[in-house]
Specification:
Layout: H1 3-17, H2 27-32, E1 36-41, H3 68-84, E2 90-93, H4 97-107, E3 111-112, H5 126-139, E4 145-150, H6 152-159, E5 167-171, E6 177-182
Parallel strand pairs: 1-4, 2-3, 2-4
Antiparallel strand pairs: 1-5, 5-6
Helix pairs in contact: 1-3, 3-4
Protein name: Histidine phosphatase family protein
Pfam families: His_Phos_1
Length: about 190
């Protein structure tokens, strides 16, 4: 792991620890100001894998949702962005409630974007969705930062890396993974 990736990883971990008053690295803030996309896997959820039988998009009661800890993690992400005075003009979210709630609690407002929806267990269209995400990355104006709140399967499809809940990946316009790290402190 190179020094820049190590520093960024510790900066991403600091997103959660900042809410606890612990010191954190300004490395992520500095690189994010140069532009790119911060992919965030939704914050921690209730126990389970995927969604329960009877899942319906748009009906949160049929989905696996954020846990109490996940709601606190999402708020800590927003606090970190405010403390860093890091402007994020665009926040896009999967249409799953756990992603929308992460985006809402962290940033207040967001836009749904189907391309960020889960493709786990053959939901969605994995290949076409990844193609659309890559197109948007290439079209991102230089120096602009966007936040995309999504799922493990989408982040892994784009980067080849497996994120934990609440983990973030900073990628450039070419889709190259610049850094990864936890959004909340280790338990």
């Amino acid at each position: 792991m190179d020094r820049r990736t190590l520093l960024l990883g510790s900066g991403l971990w600091a997103l959660g620890s900042a809410a606890c008053g612990e010191p954190y690295s300004p490395a992520l803030s500095a690189l994010a100001r140069q532009g790119g996309v911060l992919l965030i896997r939704h914050a921690s959820t209730e126990a389970g894998l995927g969604d329960p039988p009877g899942f319906t998009l748009g009906q949160c009661s049929t989905q696996r949702n954020l846990s109490e800890a996940g709601r606190a993690e999402a708020q800590a992400i927003g606090t970190w962005f405010q403390q860093q005075r890091l402007p994020v003009p665009t926040v896009l979210s999967s249409q799953w409630c756990r992603c929308q709630d992460t985006a809402r609690l962290a940033f207040g407002s967001y836009q749904d974007w189907y391309a960020l929806n889960s493709t786990f267990r053959d939901q969605g269209q994995h290949g076409p969705q990844l193609q659309r995400l890559r197109e948007r990355l290439r079209q991102l104006p230089a120096g602009q930062l966007e936040v995309w709140v999504t799922h493990q399967v989408i982040m892994t499809g784009l980067t080849g890396a497996y994120p934990a809940m609440g983990e973030g990946f900073l990628v450039d316009r070419a889709g190259s993974l610049l850094a990864r790290g936890m959004m909340q402190p280790e338990a």
